[in-house]
Amino acid sequence: MTKTFKGYAPIEVPRFELESPDGQRKIEVICKGSIPGSKFLDFLTNTKEDDPATLAVAMFDILHAAVRDDGWDEFKAFIDEPENGVSVEILAEIAGYLSELYAGRPTAPSPV
Q: What is the torsional sign of CA 29, 95, 42, 109?
């Protein structure tokens, strides 16, 4: 007997906005429709709880895999600008949000 596993893609292409604390600068970041699940396995296997450096590298890898190539430079420039106030906590929150979307939550409604 053969079991078939069907890939998952979000209902809509993931996107999010980043805004500076003063509200003067804002970008919309459009992500890829899907990224390989192996990126998340790498994240889990390559991070060590007591080593923030491995967590940072793995989180950055997830973000780089998710953000569309044509928007990466703008995203990177925005997060690198100190006045925009994008903290590690915000980047971790974005990575978590994307992880949920790419993992299949929320899913499309079931047919009735």
A: negative
6 within some domain: no
CA distance 6 to 30: 24
Phi-psi region of 85 (alpha: psi -120 to 50; beta: other; left: phi over 0): left
Its domain, for residue 65, covers 35-102
DSSP class of residue 9 equals: -
Rounded to a whole number, what is the distance in angstroms from the first to the last CA of the chain? 28
Q: Are strands 26-30 and 15-19 parallel, antiparallel or unpaired?
A: antiparallel
Whether 2 is in a domain gets the answer no
Q: Model confidence over 38-55: pLDDT tens digits?
A: 888 877 787 777 778 888
pLDDT in tens, 47-82: 777 778 888 888 888 899 999 999 999 999 999 999
Count of the separate structural domains present in the chain: 1
Residue 47 lies in a domain: yes
